[in-house]
């Protein structure tokens, strides 16, 4: 049990100090967040534009198809509500 704990502890230390996560190790992220100048972090956020991901947005295809009879009934209901409203 003690050996397993030591192995997990060593693995956690390696992950914190050596394994990059989105370009920076967890240690570097913590140091920047807690020891960096607040003006510096706000300036960096202000200069970075918000990411625009329009290429991933696609219109969803309808999951269910209406039969012709149901489509005509729906069109009739919609047209009736349009003519009744002021």
How many alpha or pi helices? 4
- The Rg value, from CA coordinates, equals 29 Å
Low-confidence stretches: none
Distance between the termini: 77 Å
* Shape category: elongated
Count every beta strand, where a strand is a DSSP E run of 2 or more residues: 0
Q: What's the helical proportion of residues?
A: 55-70%
H/E series: HHHH
How is the biggest beta sheet arranged? none
If you average the pLDDT, what whole number results? 76
Class per helix and strand makeup:
mainly alpha
Q: Beta-sheet strand percentage?
A: under 5%
Structure explained in plain terms:
The model has no long low-confidence stretch (mean pLDDT 76). The chain has four helices and no strands. The chain starts with a helix and ends with a helix. The chain has helices spanning 2-17, 26-35, 38-47, 68-84. The protein is 62% helix and 0% strand.
């Amino acid at each position: 049990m003690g050996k397993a704990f030591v192995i997990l502890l060593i693995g956690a230390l390696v992950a914190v100090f050596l394994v990059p996560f989105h370009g920076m190790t967890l240690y570097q992220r913590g140091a920047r967040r807690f020891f960096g100048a607040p003006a510096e972090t706000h300036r960096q956020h202000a200069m970075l534009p918000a990411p625009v991901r329009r290429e991933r947005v696609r219109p969803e295809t309808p999951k269910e198809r209406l039969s012709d009879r149901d489509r005509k009934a729906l069109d009739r209901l919609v047209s009736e509500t349009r003519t009744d409203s002021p």
